[in-house]
Amino acid sequence: MSTAEHQQVHSGRHKAELDCAPSHGQISDSMDIAKLCQQSPLWLGSAHYPSPLVLRQALSAAQTGVVTLGLRRIKAEQADSGLVDWLKSQGLNILPNTAGCHTVQEAVLLAQVGRELFDCSWIKLEIIGDDYSLAPHMGRLIEATALLSEQGFAVLPYCTEDLVLCQELVDAGAKALMPWGAPIGTGQGLRNPKGLWELRQRFAHLPMLVDAGLGKPSQAAQAMEMGYDAVLLNTAVAKAHDPVAMAEAFALAVRAGRLAYGSGMMAEREQANASTTLLDRPFWQQA
Question: For the whole model, what pTM was predicted?
Answer without folding.
Answer: 0.83
